[in-house]
Each structure stands twice: as C-alpha cells, then as structure tokens.
Design a protein that fits this description.
mainly alpha; Methane Monooxygenase Hydroxylase, Chain G, domain 1
Length: 226
C-alpha cells in the first residue's frame, strides 16, 4: 500500500528518523559531561581522557548523520516542512555535540582545576544544560507524530507544552550561570588570572548547551507555524 505521508511520496525516506538519531547522538555526547566532570573533580585525568574520547566519537557520529541528512534532502520539497528549516534544525543540533566536545577538550588539555567552592554548583550547572538537551531530544522525537497527524491540534498543543518546558529549563540554566559567575567573581583574587579566564570560558560554553537546546525548540516552533 502506498504511503499516505506526502513526504514519503516525494522523498522516499523521511529525514525525521535521521534527525532523531542525530539529536540522540548530541544528547549522548552532552551526557558524557557528567562522568567527565566527576573525573575532573577527582583529579583522575586518565578517566577524563577516556570519557573525552567517547565524547569525540559521539561528535564524529553526529557529524556523519548531519552529512547524511544534508545529502539526502532534495533541493525542494512540496510539504509543510521546508528544507531550510530542516537544515537549520540539524545544524543547531550539531552545535550541541560540538560544544560538549569543546568543553571536554579544553578542560582536559589544560587539566583545569575547579575551585572547591565551585565544584557542587558546577555539577548542578552542567546537569541543567544536559536536562535541556534531553528535553530538546524528547521534543524532536514528537515530530513524526506531528506530521502523521497532519499537525493536529492535540499534537501541536503537546509540542507547544514541551517547547515551553524547554524554555523554562533554559531560563533555570541562565539563573545558575549568573550564580556561578558571581561565586567565581568572589574567588578571583585567590586564583591565577589565566585560570580565571578559562573558567569563565567553560562557564560560557556550559551555558551554551541549554541555549542551543532552546534554539532547537525555537526552530521546531517555526517549522510548526509554516
């Protein structure tokens, strides 16, 4: 029986499966920051290097999926989902894995020490970013149901709620970033200036996990509205 899905008729293979695989890889890469940070705080650089290699592998796999999606999309699609939106979506997802790789690479390369007063706040901050990426993954996983329903009201409302939760998680991460920056500011005089500079950079990058996850939700919202 021929598919009733207009995308399947035009393209033969929906890109949403690869998109979901891709966000799963990006999420898995960010998840590895939990054991990575635990190794850093334990001063176990051998374990940190092992986890960082896992993050690198996941980031490479995400890159492969990104290329597969880009090469698989035709130049034009007559459907409620634009090619440009899909390409922007996969690009945003890919930046999550890239940033996880950057965080692990810089911290391992410099064998960065986290000041003891910042250890617990940093773990909470990283967890907040990973939670936002997980919410983005769950939201992307609803795309198939959205398309199959013809953008029905019930599914659209569900996705709107998921995107609103993603916005809330990003806001919570922002608040944690403000707090941890304030704590680092209080410690600046006790630390080498170069260490302080790189700690601020890591804080920026961790904050970008939730920011990029929110942008995935924002792009999906644009896709829904077209």
């Amino acid at each position: 029986m021929p598919s009733s899905n207009p995308f399947s008729r035009l393209f033969g293979r929906s890109p949403f499966g690869p998109l979901q695989e891709h966000i799963a890889k990006s999420h898995a890469a960010s998840e590895q920051l939990r054991p990575f940070m635990a190794a850093v705080l334990a001063d176990d650089w051998e374990e940190a290097a092992r986890v960082r290699e896992t993050i690198n592998q996941l980031e490479h796999e995400a890159d492969d999926l990104k290329r597969e999606i880009r090469l698989g999309l035709p130049s034009s699609l007559f459907m409620p989902v634009s090619r440009s939106d899909l390409l922007e979506l996969v690009s945003l997802q890919d930046k999550i894995a890239n940033r996880a790789k950057d965080i692990a690479g810089l911290m391992l390369g410099r064998k960065m020490q986290i000041p003891e007063p910042l250890a617990k706040p940093m773990i909470g901050f990283i967890n907040s970013g990973i939670d936002a990426v997980e919410q983005a993954r769950q939201t992307i996983n609803e795309i198939d149901e959205l398309l199959e329903s013809g953008f029905g009201r019930h599914v659209t409302d569900l996705l709107t709620q998921m995107i609103e939760k993603l916005d809330s998680l990003e806001h919570e991460a922002d608040q944690l970033e403000v707090e941890i920056r304030g704590q680092l500011f209080e410690l600046e005089k006790e630390l080498p200036p170069v260490d302080v500079m790189f700690l601020y950079r890591i804080i920026d990058w961790v904050g970008e996990l939730s920011d990029r996850a929110q942008r995935v939700g924002g792009r999906l919202q644009i896709l829904m509205a077209r």
